[in-house]
Amino acid sequence: MIYQKNFIYMLKNHYNRINISFVRYTKPFKKKWMFSSHHGSHSNELALQYFDFAYPLIFHRHWPSIRLALLSLPKPVALINPHSLSNKTVKQKLIEEGAIDLLRFDNTKLREDFSLIQEQIAKSDEEYGIKKLLEQKENRRLLGTSDLTDNQEETNEEEDDDENDDINTFNQPESVKTLDDIYKQALEQQVHSVIKGNVVPVVDDDKDRKFEKMPPSWHVYTFPRGNTSRFEPAKTDELNLLDYYCMDGACVLPIIALDVQPFHSVLDVCSAPGGKALNIFHSCPYIQLTCNDSDSLRWKRLVEVFTKTVSKDTLKKYVKFVKGDGCLFGQREPASFDRVLVDVPCTSDRHALITAFNIFSRKRVQERVDLPDYQRKLLESAIRACKPGGIVVYSTCTLAPVQNEGVVERAIENLASTTSNRKHRGHIDDYPIRCEIISTKSLEKHYAYFFEFHAKTRYGSLVLPHISNNFGPLYFCKIRRIS
Asked: Which of 33, 76, 304, 448 has its CA 20 to 30 A from that of 457?
């Protein structure tokens, strides 16, 4: 009987401890707003919905693979720091791990094979478009709408051609039933940019450029195509400088297009967080680099990146940090720089899918609608700040043509008209500014092994994310100021 009572007592104590532990750990957690069960309410979800409406009209059958890559981890590259004491050791270590120098990759056969693949994909896209047209005609015939007059059929064919050339006409869907009124209004207010494609002259001055000859101080390492290995966190040397800086591999392309030469004065209008500016400085050390950004937090990040990779004495001698509105550089320092990079704020397609509060938020509807106009002002200011004969490279990290080719065409058109220059406050004269676009097709051909380029861009180049080499998205256009 005594043993039975002791056993019951032990069971009760054990039960109470279990019950207390359950009470302790089953206390309801605070519900996180970003993991709410109300789908479609957060800006990253709205961004994906927006992409699913707009981008299939532009990229057609390529959109599913682009979408998969955007939702997957991006592939970084390692920008070697030439100012670090351990840069030679780090390069040897990366080579042993299987990394290759993106700027000096000289496998000609692989390059030619991938260029041929890109040509075959472009040809297949044309055949796919013709097939869709024939299917549409057959569907009209089966539906009993084939008794149209010849003129009506010709009109319909022209409309179909316009629909298939969606890279040049970026119109939103007419009806969006799944989104609320605010978001639907934002879609309808998006700029209907018609890219004419024949307004700005395009020259192929880089066709004979030897891209394999790069400055000895500039090294960018990546893993081969299909290799998803990651770089270890960067370490510091005896001078407390990082041995390399990780970034998106597509960011290297605008700097290659910029073609900075020794003793050039270079301006980076929207410089933060500093990856492209670092590439500029490492590609040609004997330059005067001006880094600008208007946002205080991003500007601090920019200065921090440079101080961790470049010694203080070198920074004081060659780099100038400015915090101000990029739209005013054309007024304050007209025709002052040999090279200008303007990496404008954009919808940042990949970033928008992983952040809970971004430009697709309902609270930032008007900001997104006004974004292309702000981008145009930044580009016009950059061209005004560039010397005649100098080079301006415009870049974004979005797939939207309205922010890419649309901005380039409208900015160059505005600068070519004397009326727009008269309206520009503080401008010295009323003469138009003429520009031309330098084709980057030869650059695309040379780097076809590493990047997937869109075949239907009228101006510049567009890097499409692809799961085998998940770089981008990134658009860049090379512009020369003539007068």
From this structure: 76
Dump pLDDT digits (tens) for 426-443. Answer: 444 557 899 999 999 999
**Angle between helix 43-54 and helix 181-189 axes, rounded to 10 deg:** 50
Is the peptide bond prior to 173 cis by the omega test (within 30 degrees of 0)?
no
| Peptide linkage before 273 cis (omega within 30 of 0) | yes
Query: Is the pLDDT at 402 greater than 80, yes or no?
Result: yes
Give the E-state strand segments of 183-251 in sequence order. 193-194, 202-203, 220-222, 244-248
User: How far is residue 437's CA from residue 102's CA, in Å, rounded to a whole number?
Assistant: 26
C-alpha distance across the termini of the chain, in Å:
108
Length of the chain: 483
Whether 397 is a known active-site residue: answer yes
Kindly state the DSSP code that residue 97 receives in the 8-state scheme.
T
Can you give the three-state secondary structure of 410-449, one letter per residue? HHHHHHHCHHHHHHCCCCCCCCCCCEEEECCHHHHHHCCC
Element (H, E) at 393: strand 386-396
- Cβ pair 339, 276 in contact under 8 A: no
Where is average pLDDT lowest: 119-123, 247-251, 408-412, 469-473? 119-123
Sheet of 76-80, strand order: 100-101, 220-222, 76-80, 244-248
DSSP conformation class of 361: S
Q: How far apart are CA 397 and CA 185, in angstroms?
A: 24
How would you label 336-367 residue by residue, b for 16+ Cβ within 10 Å and e otherwise? Answer: bbbbbbbbbbbbbbbbbbebeebbbbeeebee
With contact defined as beta carbons under 8 Å apart, do 277 and 289 qualify? Answer: yes
Distances (CA, A) of 34 to 17, 37, 239, 355: 35, 9, 42, 9
pLDDT for 164-219, tens place per residue?
454 444 444 444 444 455 555 555 545 345 677 677 889 988 888 888 889 899 99
If pLDDT is split at 50, 70 and 90, which confidence band does 107 have?
low
Q: Following CA atoms 83, 89, 91, 93 in sequence, which dihedral angle do they give, to the nearest 10 degrees?
A: -150
* Contacts of range 224-232, beta carbons closer than 8 Å, 24 or more positions apart: 224/98, 224/100, 225/449, 225/450, 225/468, 225/469, 226/468, 226/469, 227/98, 228/73, 228/75, 229/97, 229/98, 230/76, 231/76, 231/78, 231/94, 231/99
Q: What is the DSSP letter of 72?
A: S
Query: Which two tokens mark 446?
Result: 């040379």
Find the helix or strand (DSSP H, E) in which 254 lies: helix 252-258
- Catalytic pick among 386, 397, 435, 477: 397
CB 351 within 8 A of CB 404: no
